[in-house]
Amino acid sequence: MDVVSRCLLSAQEADSLCAAAQSALTAQGSPAHPSFYEGLEDHFHRIPASIRHALRDLRESPTLCALHISGVRVDPERCGPTPLSWQAGLDDDRQALEEAQLALLASFLGSVFAWPTIQRGRMVQNLLPVEKDREEQSGHGSVALEWHTEDGFHPDRCRYLALLGVRNHDRVPTTLGTVHDLGLADDLRAVLRERRFLIRPDLEHLRQLAAYAPDSDMLRQARAMHENPEPVALLFGDPDAPCLRIDAPYTTALPGDDEAAEALAAITGELDRAQRDVVVGEGDVLIVDNYRAVHGRRAFRPRFDGTDRWLKRISVAGRAPAPAMAGAGTRSQAL
Ligand SMILES: [Fe+2]
């Protein structure tokens, strides 16, 4: 079963996407701000038909877990050196054309949003290694980033995660594991479908809130979700085409529930076994269905000299394929 579809742009298609992004930039302003996305659908018709078909396939297929597009126009020289911190990238508009292309593709799938807790709510985030964060489980670390559902702890987590490669000389892989990779017995699946698991917020949310909004209600809520999380199921939706929600470092079985602990060990082992590498290189866009796939990153050795791996990230809200799950989001999610 093909779970990652490929879309290789011709030079003409790449030029057309770039021109569509340029006209959106002229009309809408910076993709870093929410106002860019108001009325952006007026520009969708300028996205080449082959790309629109590939995006529709991802949205409508019961089996596809990711779409890998190659050949998007990226100009690393104009973009500048890889920033040494996400703060340095906040007001840098040299990558606006690249961001607008990613924003157009992502918006075609649903409503783009940003967490106010991550990179101060910037709608397009910079993923790059930060020297002091080498050991962190985040987009700024350089140790192996364990596989996870993006914001798996939160009911309003994104439906799709869209990444664009500005620079990746070392071809550092992103990892993917999908719900179709799970060779699990029915009794284990039944346990995984029950609310017998806890997923705590990742520490990046808590760290940034503590740094930038130490007295906020959001920080209090995030701490409550960390200290007293609601039990959740890890598999849900249609049993024949289930959805998945798990975050390796932050997921536990309910205390004392040995059966749930056994099922968690089994699904963790299957996802460890199934990880595949996808290199998001210069001009690649990888869109991951966050309800059907987990993702991570292999360890790498950064240089911190402006040439390191640099990706752009956008989150897209959207309803889960199963009727029971909520997932719709707003333009700026609150915890
Ligand atoms: Fe992630």
Question: What is the topological layout?
Answer:
Elements (H helix, E strand, L loop, with lengths): L3 E5 L2 H18 L20 H12 L5 E5 L5 H4 L6 H4 L6 H14 L2 E2 L11 E3 L17 E4 L11 E8 L5 E6 L7 H7 L4 E3 L3 H10 L4 H11 L7 E2 L6 E2 L6 E3 L4 H17 L1 E4 L5 E5 L3 E5 L12 E7 L19
Parallel strand pairs: 1-2
Antiparallel strand pairs: 2-13, 3-15, 4-15, 5-14, 6-13, 6-15, 7-12, 7-14, 8-11, 9-10
Helix pairs in contact: 1-5, 6-9, 7-8
The site of fe (ii) ion has 3 residues, from loops.
Question: Describe it for me?
Answer:
This protein has 335 residues and is an alpha+beta fold. It has one domain (4-317): Clavaminate synthase-like (Double-stranded beta-helix, 4-Layer Sandwich), CATH 3.60.130.10. Helices cover 29% and strands 19% of the residues. The chain has nine helices and 15 strands. The strands form four sheets. Strands 1, 2, 3, 4, 6, 13 and 15 form a seven-stranded mixed β-sheet that branches. A hairpin with a 6-residue loop joins strand 9 (235-236) and strand 10. Helix 1 packs across helix 5 and helix 6 crosses helix 9. The longest helix is centred in the first third of the chain and has 18 residues, at 11-28. The structure holds fe (ii) ion (FE2). The site of fe (ii) ion has 3 residues, from loops. Fe (ii) ion binds next to loops. InterPro entries: Clavaminate_syn-like, TauD-like_sf, TauD/TfdA-like.
Task: List the keywords.
15 strands; alpha+beta; Double-stranded beta-helix; disordered C terminus; 335 residues; seven-stranded mixed sheet; four-stranded antiparallel sheet
